[in-house]
Amino acid sequence: MRTWLAGLFTKGRRRTTEGTVPESRAEITPEERAVLLVGILDDPTAREDEKSDAAMDLEFFTGPLVESGLIRIIRAEDFTSVLAQQCAESLGGIWARTGRVDLAFMTELRGQAKNEVFAVLGDRAPHLLPPGAL
Q: pLDDT digits over 112-130, tens only?
C-alpha cells in the first residue's frame, strides 16, 4: 500500500539521471490528496494520530470515495470511537457544504457519531436535519 501511495507523489513528474524526483515537494492534486487520506484511514499500520488527522482533513474534500471511506470507518468503529466521531464530524461538514445528505446512512447513525453529524448540521445546515431533530 505504501509503495502505491508513494507512486502517487512521483506520478507524471520528471526524474533526474539518479532516478529522483526534483519536485519532491511538488503539490499533488486534491483528488490525489483525498485518495491518500482515505488510504491512511484504511491502513492498519497507520498510527492513531495519523488516522485522526486524515479524518479531520477529509472534511475539505468531496466525492463518493471520501464519503464512502468516512462511512466505512464510522461503521467499522461501531459509531462510538474517537475516530468514528472525527469521521462523523467531517461527514457532517461535507454534507453541510454540499447541501445534501445520504438519507440511508443518516437513519443508520447512532451514538456519538450521530451526535457529531447532527451537531455539525444543526450549526451549519439545519435544513438538512430530519424533522424534529433539533
A: 999 999 999 999 999 999 9
